[in-house]
Design a protein that fits this description.
The structure is a single chain. The protein is globular. It is built from 13 helices and nine strands. Helices cover 42% and strands 10% of the residues. The longest helix is centred in the last third of the chain and has 24 residues. Strands 1-4-5-6-9 form a five-stranded mixed sheet. A two-stranded parallel sheet has the order 2-3. Helix 3 crosses helix 12 and helix 8 runs parallel beside helix 10.
């Protein structure tokens, strides 16, 4: 590498660090990387998304912008720019230094059977391709410093239940019990966190799955079933029970990882409990309609999803749900505030808040 190029790259790296430290004093993060499903990507990072998407909701977030999503709001609190989509990169090393969004609007933990989905392992391979590029361009030492000063955000599992386990046309439901399916998903999530740790990623935010049994589409599809109402809240108890199995198991395994892996700082964020608090007391959090999708048609706005922003309600801040399965920006803002500081939704991220994680010094290994 030419001396001038190396100097430019080093200067860019330090500028990223200066941006974070001046925006949030004491911040120890210079790179924020995101992996996940429609909770982290509105379709911008999904090739041929409008063609392949089959859940009838082409716009899974307000105005089709990632700026309404939870990781985007957390990046802002960290004082970092939101990571650009992986597929938008042009090969420039400067575009990698503050992190990337590897997420895809349809993504599963298990290997997908459809080309419309991307798997957790596919996104992980893209992460390692990025690490290799950093090593080639900057050298192993500098690349290692960047990786160790990063935070990774993982948000998966929703599409595994929607498109694999809860579909009558899928063979998965007949093959596994709910507990067995959850165990398979959690094992794969833990393996990925181990792989990231082995690659010198020591700080990870791992999100649980939201209460799928309360989403407009699930409530609409199961309205005449015998699955049972979830304590009068209009949610499907059977579906929420499956999600709770997964979330509980995932958190337990994260506790074990933190004990087992030296200098690992992995937090579990329980967005299930956060959203359920809003469902139980919607007016306390400023919501008028906890059941209906802001953007959709039919009963609960769930017969047809969000095909155009012109279909959306006038005040999305009055709603908990944006479309068939995704929350509104107002919900994400409450979750971001609570994940960052523990308020107003107490202790949804455990064992520490995202803010405490960000201020945890990087654990540089030899």
């Amino acid at each position: 590498m030419k001396r001038e190029t190396l100097l430019v790259l080093i200067a860019s790296f330090f500028m990223v660090g200066m941006t974070a430290s001046t925006s949030v004093a004491g911040n120890n993060v210079t790179s924020f990387n995101v992996l996940g499903d429609s909770s982290v990507d509105c379709g911008e990072n999904t090739l041929f998304y409008p063609i392949l998407h089959h859940n009838l909701s082409l716009i899974p977030c307000y105005n089709g912008s990632d700026s309404t999503l939870l990781p985007h709001l957390l990046a802002k609190k960290m004082g970092l720019p939101y990571p650009p989509p992986f597929y938008s990169q042009n090969g420039s090393i400067n575009g990698l230094l503050s992190g990337l969004n590897y997420g895809s609007a349809q993504a599963t933990i298990m290997n997908p059977s459809s080309q419309s989905h991307q798997s957790l392992n596919q996104q992980l391979r893209q992460v390692f391709e990025t690490f290799q590029l950093l090593q080639l361009e900057l050298g192993e030492g500098s690349a290692k410093d960047i990786i160790e000063s990063s935070v990774f955000y993982l948000s998966f599992g929703k599409d595994d239940y929607l498109d694999l386990f809860l579909q009558s046309s899928s063979s998965v439901m007949g093959k596994y019990s709910g507990l067995e399916f959850a165990s398979i998903l959690v094992d794969q999530m833990v393996n990925v966190m181990r792989d990231l740790y082995d690659a010198n990623v020591h700080r990870i935010i791992c999100m649980g799955i939201l209460p799928l049994g309360c989403t407009p589409r699930i409530v609409w599809e199961w309205r005449n079933s015998t699955a049972g109402d979830d304590e009068g809240r209009g949610c499907v108890a059977k579906v929420n029970g499956l999600i709770l199995q997964y979330n509980t198991m995932l958190e337990e395994r994260i506790i074990n990882l933190n004990s087992e892996l030296p200098n690992a700082h992995i937090i579990f964020c329980d967005i299930y409990q956060g959203i359920m608090q809003m469902m139980n007391n919607p007016q306390d959090y400023g919501f008028e309609d906890p059941k209906t999708a802001c953007c959709g048609l039919g009963l609960y706005g769930a017969m047809i999803g969000c095909l155009s922003v012109e279909m959306a309600c006038e005040r999305d801040s009055d709603y908990i749900w944006w479309d068939l399965y995704n929350p509104t920006k107002a919900v994400n803002a409450l979750l971001a505030d609570s994940a960052w500081s523990g308020r107003p939704l107490f202790d949804i991220c455990r064992p520490i808040s995202v803010r405490a994680l960000v201020f945890t010094p990087p654990s540089y290994s030899n």
